Amino acid sequence: LVSQAEALKEENDSLRWQLDAYRNEVELLKQEQGKTHREDDPNKEQQLKLLQQALQGMQQHLLKVQEEYKRKEVELEKIKDDKLQVEKMLENLKEKESCASRLCASSQDSDYPLEKTLNSSPIKSEREALLVGIISTFLHVHPFGASIEYICSYLHRLDNKICTSDVECLMSRLQHTFKQEMTGVGASLEKRWKFCGFEGLKLT
């Protein structure tokens, strides 16, 4: 879109120069015609009419180019605004994910002894804890659940090395945090994961 706008701007400038050249030529012909007093010269008259027609055509084309250029500028500004909003949303989401992972880690450290946590916790590493926090935040804003493919497509934007089977295995181990439900009927039947941490907290 930027390149299109730049091309329209260049075409706009080029048309302006051509338009000025046509106007100058028309003015010169008018002056020449006035000096020689040969209004009856058919060649001069025809040339003048052709130039005037060309001038009108150039003016119309210039107006169209200017309108298209303005429209592209408006679209470009809208895209810039949308980009800023998306960046703000991503930044807020990252802050929530970071906060959730810190809360998860601090909760484990305060509620369980270190030895018991290492031996019995379904979370095996800090990376898995981070994944749990990120997935929980993602599913929290999807109250009707999401498929494992949808969840992993989101995670791949953060780390393209994440494996779908590992994510599904991790979520399956955390039965008090995530639950899988079947939605739809027949061909539209679909497995969706939901966040159930608020209910699961009462059971642990």
From TrEMBL:
<feature type="domain" description="Ecto-NOX disulfide-thiol exchanger 1/2">
    <location>
        <begin position="4"/>
        <end position="98"/>
    </location>
</feature>
<dbReference type="GO" id="GO:0016491">
    <property type="term" value="F:oxidoreductase activity"/>
</dbReference>
<dbReference type="GO" id="GO:0009897">
    <property type="term" value="C:external side of plasma membrane"/>
</dbReference>
<protein>
    <submittedName>
        <fullName>Ecto-NOX disulfide-thiol exchanger 2</fullName>
    </submittedName>
</protein>
<feature type="coiled-coil region">
    <location>
        <begin position="5"/>
        <end position="96"/>
    </location>
</feature>
<keyword id="KW-0175">Coiled coil</keyword>
<dbReference type="GO" id="GO:0007624">
    <property type="term" value="P:ultradian rhythm"/>
</dbReference>
<dbReference type="Pfam" id="PF23267">
    <property type="entry name" value="ENOX1"/>
</dbReference>
<dbReference type="InterPro" id="IPR056611">
    <property type="entry name" value="ENOX1/2_dom"/>
</dbReference>
<dbReference type="InterPro" id="IPR038876">
    <property type="entry name" value="ENOX"/>
</dbReference>
